[in-house]
Amino acid sequence: MKLPLSVYYITQDEELRLPESLAKVTGWVDEIIVVDSGSTDRTREIAEGAGARFVYNDWQGFASQKAYAASLCRNDWALDLDADEVLSDELVRNIKAVFVQPVPEDVAGFRMRWVLSQPNPAHPFKHDKTKKILRLYNRKKAVIEAEKDSNNDRPQVREGRVLDLKGDVLHRTLVSLEQMERKYCQLSTEQARFLAAKGRRISSGRLFAEFPLKFLKYYLIHRQILNGWFGLSVAITAANRNFMRLAKAKELQMLAELEMDSGPKRF
Predict the structure, then answer these.
(1) How far is residue 80's CA from residue 136's CA, in Å, rounded to a whole number?
(2) Could you tell me the CA-to-CA distances from 60 to 68, 147, 265 in Å, in that order?
(3) Comparing C-alpha atoms, which of 18, 64, 56 is closest to residue 35?
(4) What's the pLDDT tens digit per position in 182-212?
(5) For 227, which DSSP code?
(6) What angle do CA 218, 183, 164 make, to 5 degrees?
(7) Of 32, 71, 110, 121, which sits with the fewest C-beta atoms within 10 Å of its C-beta?
């Protein structure tokens, strides 16, 4: 018997990582939805082969895309997954146990542990900071705010309490440094547009401090120092993404001001 649960993904060219994630949810959830922003590989074939509903939607940013995917769900309870995330067997068992009886009315959702887990144990990217994330939630009590260019794609609880589930979401995040760099370039551009649209002013002091502070955060706090040369590369790339989102936002503000100053003069 399938659970009254919808699982949704947002994808673009995820033929390598999507199959493993789909395999862990196929057969026991009521529906799987894949919202795609223009894959040119076998993503659609893989999704539909697993019984998923495949929908195209123009890319408007991570938050907007996930909010749209969540809006397509026919169940109140939804499981938000990325193509590079795989549920552990323990987590699958515990999610199923949640629905053995009606979920208490005051529960808005469930957090689960998010851990780095490379498919190849010999890969040099082995260590990262774990965290608890809300991925299983009641759409009547938690929502994703659909703001253009926002990457705040986590459900925000409006009412109710959040409980913890044992088991891990295994994060198969890195394909290559090139893939990471491309993704972070896209992210920094979208974040810059979002910051500029909000009117956030970026000081020069903030710009000078951003890279070294974020590098230390990723290298030490996120434990990239344990990943050797690869961890150093990851920390530099991640810190640069944070720096570039601010630099690009400041540039957008500067260009807008120059355009206003050079506009037609009235006498």
Answers:
(1) 6
(2) 10, 8, 35
(3) 56
(4) 999 999 999 999 999 999 899 999 999 999 9
(5) G
(6) 60
(7) 121
Q: Check residue 81 and report its DSSP letter.
A: -
Tokens of 47: 């999704």
Tokens of 221: 């706090």
How do residues 151-191 score in pLDDT, each as one tens digit? 999 999 999 999 999 999 999 988 899 999 999 999 999 99
Identity (one letter) of the amino acid at 13?
A: D
> CA 141, CA 103: separation in Å to the nearest integer?
13
Q: Are strands 131-138 and 77-80 parallel, antiparallel or unpaired?
A: antiparallel
Question: What strands, in cross-sheet order, belong to the sheet with 161-171?
Answer: 53-56, 29-36, 3-11, 77-80, 131-138, 107-116, 161-171, 85-87
Cβ 155 vs Cβ 144: under 8 Å:
yes
Secondary element (H or E) of residue 143: strand 142-143
* DSSP label of 102: P
Cβ pair 22, 46 in contact under 8 A: yes
Spell out the residues 6+ positions from residue 117 whose beta carbon is closer than 8 angstroms to its own: 86, 168, 170, 171, 172
pTM of the model: 0.90
Angle at CA 128, nearest 5°, toward 122 and 129?
155
